[in-house]
Design goal:
Distance between the termini: 44 Å
Number of strands: 13
Strand order of the largest sheet: 8-7-6-9-10-11-12-13
Radius of gyration: 25 Å
CATH superfamily of the largest domain: NAD(P)-binding Rossmann-like Domain
Strand content: 15-25%
Number of domains: 2
Helix content: 40-55%
Largest sheet: 8 strands, mixed
CATH architecture of the largest domain: 3-Layer(aba) Sandwich
């Protein structure tokens, strides 16, 4: 696809250093271009015009070379990911997500800005269901809405309590006593009015309940399994993933340890093949142990929930947009917040 305008990708920082123009992406990644009469001339004229034809003409005239030689350099710079072609109207249309498109391009570069816009189009057509609007679900839903997800179904049976406010960022004191799904919808629409949000007040406490939900909301691309109960939820989702053609991700924590993943879907092994569920063991306990299990309260903070949820959310957005490899597909990441160590497990 040949566009008429061209520019240096805007996420690059440019420095002249030790005889090179350094196009810096990260501390570990960048492109070096030798400082020569040609590169000096090219970069000077690129500041003056984005018109690819005029740029080649101006550089060729100043240096006394053929426009085809300039065009060859342009093609090399496009291939290296330093330059991109673009058209102005798309920049206007996707202004809200401009920095997000730049971020995706740093991870998986494309030569046409319009290809980055297609990534956002995919996200805007996606439907994600968040089951459990607690600490993890709050941050997941907020990041999805801010990132331009097209449709979100919010599923929760609880109402907002005072103790939620320290870690569930979508709620305020004015929401106490309100259904979480309804309160979250109100807040998310303030973040992104273009997002279609459907609240469902109820608990998914059986496989049949999950089936009924899926029949009601289908088609859905992703299930975010962020509910504290029931412990069997990942197993039910796994059983239904092929029938309803969705992917799912489990995200939670145990104290200061985040359990991020696994992601699973129609083309992966089932949850029970990937990880051993505690569901059967918990169900087999005597009444004394079950009584203590029922009293368990999960330690959490706003910061820890944000970290765990957003690592998983980034993977979902990479998958929906078609940007890079989804590292957590079929895997689980364990994140220790005491040491900041991460391992698979």
């Amino acid at each position: 696809m040949n566009q008429s305008k061209i520019r240096v990708k805007r996420f690059y920082q440019l420095l002249r250093h030790e005889g090179n123009f350094d196009f810096i992406k990260t501390l570990d990644e960048g492109i070096k271009l030798p400082v020569q009469a040609f590169s000096e001339c090219f970069l000077k004229h690129l500041l003056e015009t984005n018109d690819e034809h005029l740029l080649s003409k101006n550089v060729a005239e100043e240096l006394g070379i053929q426009p085809a030689d300039v065009q060859g350099f342009v093609e090399n710079m496009l291939e290296m990911g330093v330059l991109e072609r673009f058209v102005e109207p798309d920049t206007q249309k996707f202004e809200r997500y401009d920095r997000q498109l730049l971020f995706w391009d740093t991870m998986q570069p494309v030569t046409e800005y319009q290809e980055s816009c297609l990534r956002q189009e995919r996200v805007s057509k996606a439907h994600v269901a968040v089951i459990g609007i607690g600490g993890i679900g709050n941050y997941f839903a907020l990041s999805l809405a801010a990132s331009g997800i097209g449709k979100m179904s919010l599923v929760d049976s609880d109402t907002v309590e005072t103790s939620n406010l320290s870690r569930q960022i979508l709620f305020s004191a004015a929401d106490i006593g309100q259904p979480k799904a309804e309160a979250a919808k109100h807040r998310l629409l303030l973040t992104n009015p273009a997002c279609q949000i459907e609240p469902y007040i109820g608990m998914i406490d059986s496989k049949s309940a999950l089936r009924s939900l899926l029949e009601r909301i289908a088609p859905v691309d992703y299930l975010i399994l962020s509910a504290d109960q029931a412990v069997e939820l990942p197993l039910w989702a796994s059983d239904l993933r092929k029938e309803f053609n969705f992917k799912a991700v489990k995200c939670g924590y145990m104290g200061y340890q985040g359990l991020i993943g696994p992601f699973f879907g129609p083309d992966t092994p089932g949850y029970d093949e990937l990880f051993q569920s505690w569901a059967g063991l918990i169900a087999s306990q005597d009444e004394t142990v079950k009584g203590y299990h029922a009293r368990h309260a999960a330690p959490a903070s706003s910061a820890s929930n944000a970290i765990f949820a957003n690592i998983a959310c980034l993977e979902v957005l990479k998958d929906l947009s078609g940007t890079g490899h989804v590292n957590l597909m079929g895997k689980r990441l364990l994140f220790n917040l005491k040491t900041l160590e991460m391992r698979w497990g």
